[in-house]
Amino acid sequence: MTDSDIRRADAVYSALLARAGEAWVEPRLDRTAKLLEYLDNPQRTYRVVHITGTNGKTSTARIIESLVRAHGLRTGLFTSPHLVRFTERILIDGEPIADEAVADAWDEIFPFLALVDAELDADGQAPLTFFELLTALAFVACADAPVDVLVLEVGMGGAWDSTNTADGDVAVFTPIDIDHAARLGSTRAEIAEVKAGIIKQGAAVVSSRQEPDAAAVLRRVAAENDASIAFEGDDFALVETKLAVGGQLVRVRGLAGDYEEEYLPIYGAHQGANAALAVAAVESLIGGGTQRIASDIRTEGFGETVSPGRLQLVGTEPTVIVDAAHNPHGARALVRALKESFDFEEWGVVLGVMADKDVAGVIEELKPLAAHLFATEAASERAASADEIADAAELQGLRPTAHRDIAEAAEAAREWAAEGEKRAIVIAGSVVLGGEAIALSRVEGWKTASVGDED
Predict the structure, then answer these.
(1) What pLDDT, on the 0 to 100 scale, is given for residue 180?
(2) 70-121 pLDDT per residue, tens
């Protein structure tokens, strides 16, 4: 990687940022599809595992990608958002995409942008957005690599998400809950209807345990598309998880058989459930759900899994954990995982949540854990202010302190933790804040570790 490559890739990111951002979502597929048509549909040159849900998408995607790669196949992984640098969103064979590859893919796309934007303008529509173009960039880069399988995480929803221009051989559903209600619907059934849009004709569908209303939608849409469907609990399951150094030992009942203990270097029983879902997805992709995953492949695939920003240890003395929990469901899983996996008596919670999220709901879930809440805000125009978060916490009986940014909040939290026995810190509330915390830990020289895990 040369300085020139870095500059070229950074210029691509600047061009993407000049577009409407990720908070600006257009429920449309036709314009992304048109751009991809001009590019000879690169998304049809490899098999696709498509993942949606409310929480756990990124972690599940990473486990799937690692297991597929352990089969000797070349993989692509597209997830969002990123923690530190945007190239983290596109992995080729488990590594962030090279800057040169980003720039080369952009050079292929660029000649068609003005044409598609002009067509949109003539139709009274806004130009291609950040995420629409990033999706196309990922598809082109994966075709250029080339990859055998792309593990593809939706940006939002499913049916009209720009990633749905790809045809998923396997559709994967993590738990569906209430989130992005203004865009996706106010009930689980409505949200499930949008997410079920990734189910393609004749595909294989695997799903986490769902509430009955969401499960009913997935079953119906699968039947309408002649797709097979398997649910956690009925067709596959996490049988057992045991705490281990740096992660856990998991036993899984798959679609094709039972698997004895394997080491997963990620904390939290919810991550064990994500691993079971990943196993079912890979069994469905390779062998149609009837072929067991070989022991050496499981060991390699699980053992090499990482999920940055999800129960990630970024500091010691005091212990600091970063987690991307950004809604009540994710916060609930975080609290459960911290209690299961760590032996601390008091937790200081550094919290920064986006204003369009359920701030009160996140605080309610974290309240039983928080010996002290340090309210802060990420460097994003979408972020709720530290004062707003502190006010919401006070309404729930907490006595928080407000801090202008992650550096100030982390310093205060680390000082608090150092004053008592068996105290630790968790930084949560958004992926953006998590990325800032990880970057800060490196600058400040906290001991960093990629021990694991959610996005």
Answers:
(1) 64
(2) 999 999 999 988 998 999 999 999 999 999 999 999 999 999 999 999 999 9
Report yes or no: 298 and 67 within 8 Å, Cβ to Cβ: yes
- Is residue 156 within 8 A of residue 180, CB to CB? The reply is yes
43 contacts: CB under 8 Å, gap ≥ 6: 36, 139, 143, 150, 165, 166, 167
Tens digit of each residue's pLDDT (9 = 90 or more) over 308-350: 998 999 998 899 999 999 999 899 999 999 999 999 999 999 9
Q: Are 339 and 372 in contact (CB under 8 A)?
A: no
Q: Where are the domains of the chain?
A: 3-303, 312-444
Instruction: Quote the tokens at residue 189.
Output: 């059934």
Of the pLDDT bands very low, low, confident and very high (cuts 50, 70, 90), residue 445 is: confident
DSSP 259: E
CATH number of 3-303: 3.40.1190.10
3-state secondary structure of 160: coil
Q: How far is CA 379 from CA 12, 55, 267, 338, 383, in A?
A: 21, 23, 28, 26, 7
SS3 content of the chain, % helix, strand, coil (to 5): 45, 20, 35
- The class of domain 312-444 in CATH terms is alpha beta
